[in-house]
UniProtKB/TrEMBL annotation:
GO MF assignments: protein-arginine omega-N symmetric methyltransferase activity
Gene3D superfamilies xref list: 3.40.50.12710
Keywords assigned: Methyltransferase, Transferase
Organism (species): Bradyrhizobium nitroreducens
GO terms classed as biological process: methylation
Metal-binding in keyword set: no
InterPro entries: NDUFAF7 (IPR003788), NDUFAF7_sf (IPR038375), SAM-dependent_MTases_sf (IPR029063)
This protein's record includes keyword Transferase: yes
Superkingdom in the source lineage: Bacteria
A Pfam entry, by short name: Methyltransf_28
Protein name in the entry: ATP synthase subunit beta
Amino acid sequence: MTDQPLLDEIKALIKASGPMPVWRYMELCLMHPRHGYYVSRDPLGREGDFTTAPEVSQMFGELLGLWTASVWKQMGSPQFLRLIELGPGRGTMMADALRALRVLPPLYQALHIHMVEVNPVLRERQGATLSAVRNISWHDSIDDVPEGPSIILANEYFDVLPIHQMVRHENGWHERVIEIDGNGKLQFGVAPEPTPRFDVLLPPLVRAAPIGAVFEWRPDGEIMKLATRVRDQDGAALIIDYGHLRSDAGDTFQAIARHTFADPLKAPGQADVTAHVDFQALAGAAEAVGARVHGPVTQGDFLRRIGIDTRAAALMQKATPEVATDISIALKRLTETGRSGMGSMFKVLGISEPRLTGLAGLSDLEPAGDD
């Protein structure tokens, strides 16, 4: 046995039941009840494995708070609103959003906050960050959040939902699996038989992919839950994640540890295992249940449309030169392209009940300015 209990358990499962699909391996890495990455640690920040947009700058959460206010007004300013965050990290984004919303007392008084979080370590951090917030509760799943008009925020939530990987061979598409090589190490393989009629469901772009191409897909269950909720109970959801605008072939399964890429098969449960989000697939699933889709647009465009440049200028005006430099760096990180920028890699998708015909920052008719 090694000092990696999850690796040992995965190998034992493979030896007992045969090669394991990528989706099951990813699920165990992240959500194993004892050794899963997301059930046992705080992965965020400089001392963790990665940094999310709310940790880069307060501006991110503040602007999402103002976006929430805009949607609330479009909903007719209901006297009761559930503000739900999926995968809320340390509670930083919610704290920043609520600080911005305090300037609008009728909305602030209407809010009931719901944090969907399974990690007990992060729940504790969120509780400390939001200790002064009234009407707040925690849930393991959005299924547990009571009904009612809702605005749902999901920043870097969908990228950790398990993916299926399919590999194209001459005789069809085969499920990609994890198996054990001759040296006792984990390696990728494929199921011996193709998945029947899998190509019938594929977008034309993927159907034309070459032999050896990898196609990733996630079940539609989670996005359909959000879409059905806002369709039936009034409200909107905002999804922000890294990924691609249209469905295409490509292997994006990856691991991040200590802010650098790692081998996803080497230390299961000890690194963040993710894959890019297919925004075309999300939008299609939401539309299929009758919700209205807005976007997607790049994160850089979205943040600029809802006023991040104006907010940065206001903060810098009151700041010391050193802090002003930090704000400028954070602004570039959130909005610009390139290796260190999140502006084009991250996309933003809105989903709402059909009556809401446009959402701030996501309307095609909206100028990409600082309005």
